[in-house]
Every structure is written in C-alpha cells, then in structure tokens.
Amino acid sequence: MTETYADLIAAEDVLLFVNAAVTSTGQREFRSQAYQQRLSLDFLHEYVRVNYRTVYAASLALDINDHNAARVVEQLLRTAGEASGEQRRTEGRLIAARLARLPPQRVYRLFRALRAAKVGNRRARAILRDWLAARPDLGHDAVKYRAGLKTAARHFHLPLTTATGTGTATGTAPPAAGELGDFLFKPGVRPRYEHALLDAYRRAHYEQGAVYELPFTVAEGFAARHGVAREAFVERIAPRMTRLERLRTQREAGADVAGAAVRTDLSVMPLTRLALYALSLTTEERVRRRAELTGALRSAARRAAGPYAGTWGRVAAVLDDSYSASGSGVKRRRPLAVALGGHFLLEALAAPGAYGAWWTSGRTDPLLVRPYGPTPLGMRVIDALEYAPERLVVVSDGWDNAPPGLAGEVLRVWRTRLDRERRTSVVHLNPVYDADGFDVRRLAASVPTAGIRDAEDLPALVEIAQFAEGRTGLAELQAYLDRRIESFLRTYERGGAT
C-alpha cells in the first residue's frame, strides 16, 4: 500500500512539472508577475531533476515549450556528474533530438547560458559540435546569429578553419576553409569572401544594393544606417522574408495593405500562430476577410488533427473568452488564441456534424470573439452536457467566477451521480500556469487537467491528461513516456526533425 501511494505521489509530481513546462515561459501572465513565474519554474526544475532525473530528461520527448526544453537541456548538461552512464547515453540522444527541433536562436542562447555557467565539458562540446555540423549553412548562421556562433566557437574551442555544414539552406556552397574563422574573428583580413552571404554582409557596409541579399533581420539595421525609407525597404526585401516576418510587417503597416495579406499564404501557417494573427485584426477586417481566415484556420486544424480527424465522435467544447483571456502585455491574447485554435481543431477531430461549442460570453461566431466579461464556466458546462457528448473539452484558465466554483460542483455531481458509467469523457486544458500553486488551476478533483500552450498539441495533451485523475502510478506514466521517447527518437534518427 505504501509503495502504491508513493507511486501516485511521484506521478503527481511529474505531471505537475509537465503542466508547468508546457504552459509557462517565465513571462508575466494575467494574474502573476514574471518573477513569480520564474521562481516557481526554478523550483520545479530543480525538484524534478534531483528526484526524477530519468523522467526529467524524458520530458524532452513531450510537447513542452521551447523555453523549458532549453532549460532542461541546460540543467542536464550542467549536472552530468549526477547521471549514470546509461542515463548519460539516453540523455545525449534526447538532447540531440530536441536541439534539432529548437529554433537556432534559442540554441545559441542556450550555449551562451552554458558559457556563463562555465560549462565546457567534453560531453557539451560534442553535442555542440554535432549540432553545428548538422546546420544547413553555417555561413547563414554567421551572418544572422553572429554573436551566438562567435561565443560558442570561442568558449567551446570549436575549430572554424574548415568548412562545416552543407550549404543547402540558402542555395549556396558551404564556406571555404578558414572563411568562417576570419569572418567572425578577423573581419578586415579578407578583401572578399567566396560565400555569398558573408561577402554580402561585408559589402552591405558601403553598398546599398548588398543589403537586399541579407536575411531580413540583419538587413533592417543596414537599411536604417543607409537611410532607406521603411516602405521602400520592406517592398524590396519581401522575397527574402519569412511568413512570420511578412505578417509582422503587415501588422506594422496597418490594415490597408490588403494586397500583402493576399500574397501571404495563411493556409500553411501553424494553427495557434494563425489564431493569434486573426485576433490581432480589427473586427471589421475579420468580417471582410471571413472566408480567407476561416478557410485557413480549418486547413491548419485538419493538418494538426492528422489521422485523428473525424474519429472523436460527438464532441462538445467549453471555450473561455472572458477578460482574463486577454493574457498579458508580453503574451497578448495567447489564452484566447489557444481557445480559438482549439475550437477549429476539435471541430476537425469530431465526427462530421457532431460538434458543438459554447463560449463563456455566449457568442456563437468564433471568428469575432474578443476577451470580455466574467467567466461563467458552470453555466456553459451545463449547456455542453445537455448536448450529450462523448467527449467534453474545456479550454480555460480555470477561474470560474460567475458564480464562483459552479463548474467544479456541476462536474462533481455529473461524475458521481449522473454519469457513473463514464459515458462522457471530460478533460480540462488550461493555457495559463498558476505560479502560486505550482500547477495549472483545476476545475474539480474528478476532472483530469493538463496544461496547454499550442492548440496543435491538444490531441496529445488529452491523452496525457488521463494520468492526472490520480488513479495511475509512476509505472504507467513511465510506460507512456517510454513510448513517446521511442517515437520521438525514431522520428529524429530517420531525419524527420527540422
């Protein structure tokens, strides 16, 4: 009995950390400041790493956000002496696979953090060397992430005298022998560079035309130095901009650049990013572009649903568009974007014609939702249960306040009195981390709750939420993690990571 109870406590500890690592990025939330978020995360990372190191490393195979993934990698590399030989081998594979999925700027930031912590062991150097060797074009990195690459090369004693990388990302040949080292550490030595981007960076200091051969974020600084008008610069640099950069410049320019919006293919945008973009538009523009935005959101949702599309049967969703869904200054409208993306994803997962959605505000047009008013979750849960769904999914920060606690009481009575056979599966997904409680806020003890940051992760998080009901121990959770690790590493080693 004692061992079983200990396993349940261990499973709860692990799920506590997973919820935090999925939702929190150490930034200010609607009800907590950034320092509170950071302190809470610091404690959880330390606690789980010390007590459950194997599971701590396994979290890299889950849908935790990039901030916490980089933090896990940093902690594993800083404390390599605490791991056994078998643990280090597994950790090395997981770290390599996760680094391949992280944005390069975050990886370079990670190596700067390792330098500040004075971590320079053989294991860290080998991981850095392998990651750099897999980069498609180090010449591009030397231009766009100059400080990060320079710091990493100096601290980890990485020789840059030979060509590294394949050069396929920008369609150029890899840098010639010695070029990278000279570019980073002896910028005035060579009169020209064989690598096109390196030479364009050199020429951009005095030649305005070379600015438009550089990545957008680098070219911005040179354009300002040359006094180029912003509108003219954006128009000419457009072919070298990423989709996100185009969307950002569209928002800067305002809603009158409708032509630019048409040129950007919204249908290939990730679901949550697309939902954030839609919510950033005015109500008038959303109405005017209703067909385009709705089609793009449904297309992204179908991609996210994948093989599960249409397999969830009759689904009901309770979605939070109360005032707290506005998020914070640094995470503007993020909770509402998760709810909006979740709406379209659940619509794709449900059987055709078997989906119903209830917004806390009572609105029925998802494209026009805005964060406003209280959070009457209890009333909406009653409405959703009357739909007799096979699955009920609640996407909310859990602050049920109109009246307080009604949702939890409704779900308790439903589970204990009206649906003892569990005909309806109920899951609560919370996009906001509660720093004071070291977890996401829950509606009721009988309802499994999981943290969520991106709507695309909803199917996987509904699966892992089953462990949050308190009826399964660490053995079952470890078996699930083992399956995720195997799938994660198999995808990476087959070249599926980008």
What about the largest sheet?
5 strands, parallel
Percent helix range: 40-55%
How are the strands of the biggest sheet laid out side by side?
A: 2-1-3-4-7
Shape: globular
Rg calc: 25 Å
Terminal CA distance: 46 Å
- Mean pLDDT across all amino acids: 88
User: Count the strands?
Assistant: 7
Class from helix and strand fractions = mainly alpha
Q: Output the number of helix runs.
A: 23
Instruction: Please state roughly what percent of the residues sit in beta strands, choosing from under 5%, 5-15%, 15-25%, 25-35%, 35-45% or over 45%.
Output: 5-15%
Order of helices and strands: HHHHHHHHHHHHHHHHHHEHEHEHEEEEHH
User: Poorly predicted ranges (pLDDT <50, ≥5 residues)?
Assistant: 255-262
Task: Give a quick set of tags describing it.
five-stranded parallel beta sheet; two-stranded antiparallel sheet; 7 strands; mainly alpha; 498 residues
Give the helix/strand layout.
Blueprint: H1 2-23, H2 34-51, H3 53-58, H4 66-78, H5 85-101, H6 104-116, H7 122-133, H8 138-144, H9 146-155, H10 179-185, H11 196-204, H12 216-226, H13 230-237, H14 243-253, H15 258-263, H16 271-280, H17 283-288, H18 290-305, E1 315-319, H19 334-349, E2 355-359, H20 377-386, E3 391-395, H21 406-418, E4 425-430, E5 433-434, E6 439-440, E7 449-451, H22 458-464, H23 474-493
Parallel strand pairs: 1-2, 1-3, 3-4, 4-7
Antiparallel strand pairs: 5-6
